[in-house]
Design brief:
Length: 281
């Protein structure tokens, strides 16, 4: 399905009902919007894992502008626009204060949205993401997991993004994103639609200078920050910085031995933490 947000058409898919047909008065169920990582990938990277939450929430998977099946020109590939797209999306469909989950790049959009549109979110879940990209910590973890070559490939990619560097990073560094003890965790990219040009644009421009620590201090909704202790691209310091900036409204959960996306490396542990947070009034 598509929604026109002005300068782009956003693809979305829905799992679960908005009204609980098992209740006498058709009680409205909360909406959980799931924002995928990348940028340049699509929502399939989150499925089918998060479908399990359709027993309590209506789930909406959204392809960001320029990503997956969504449209949008390069001059609009910026966090302000991605966040505003979500606001227009919710307004158009009549979605009132959803729970918003963001993985990696999706988390950057989610926290910018929550700061820019504070009335537009009831709860926030930020998974394996960063308010400020830390190349120094990225290289340190890449070196720990993959040696000096992996650290150098990461440095070249994030310092001077290009298609050649993108391809090298995919070959050398992406396999380090998941714990090798959870081999199925790395298959999430296999069927994804890839738009490398979106990633190269974002990494070479906005992400390189991004620092949202001051703005997210204004986030007042309950926020769950999830990170992995061996995440090579958004290392633990990134999750800790987000929780520290948001302050008392944030709950930080670090998953031992997990990489970029604890829901992939420790599905049961991540589900337990998320369900507890979602069930809290």
């Amino acid at each position: 399905m598509f929604v026109d947000v002005g300068s782009a058409r956003l693809f979305f898919d829905v799992v679960g009902e908005s009204l609980n047909a098992t209740t006498p008065d058709m009680v409205e169920r909360p909406t959980l919007i799931l924002l995928h990582g990348g940028p340049g990938y699509d929502h399939s990277t989150l499925r089918p894992y998060f479908d399990r939450y359709s027993d309590t929430h209506q789930l909406i998977y959204l392809d960001h502008r320029g990503c997956g099946r969504s449209t949008g020109e390069q001059e609009t590939w910026y966090l302000d626009q991605w966040a505003d797209d979500l606001a227009v999306f919710c307004s158009t469909l009549g979605i009132d204060s959803p729970v918003v989950f963001g993985q990696s790049f999706g988390g950057m959009v989610a926290m910018h949205y929550a700061a820019r549109h504070p009335a537009g979110v009831s709860k926030l879940i930020l998974s394996s993401t960063a308010a400020q990209f830390r190349l120094d910590e990225n290289m340190k973890m890449m070196r720990k997991l993959g040696g000096e070559h992996a650290a150098e490939v990461a440095r070249q990619f994030f310092s001077n993004p290009s298609q050649t560097a993108y391809d090298a990073y995919a070959k050398v560094c992406l396999p380090l994103y998941s714990n090798p003890s959870a081999p199925a965790a790395s298959t999430f990219r296999d069927r994804a639609i890839q738009r490398p040009e979106v990633a190269l644009h974002f990494f070479s421009d906005e992400m390189a200078r991004m620092d949202m620590r001051a703005e997210i201090a204004a986030i007042t909704c309950p926020t769950l920050v999830i990170g992995g202790t061996i995440d090579p691209v958004t290392p633990p310091v990134c999750s800790q910085a987000i929780a520290g900036a948001i302050g008392g409204n944030a709950r930080l959960e670090m998953f031992e031995g997990c990489g970029h996306g604890p829901h992939r490396d420790d599905p049961e542990g991540a589900e337990k933490v998320m369900r507890s947070f979602l069930a809290t009034p």
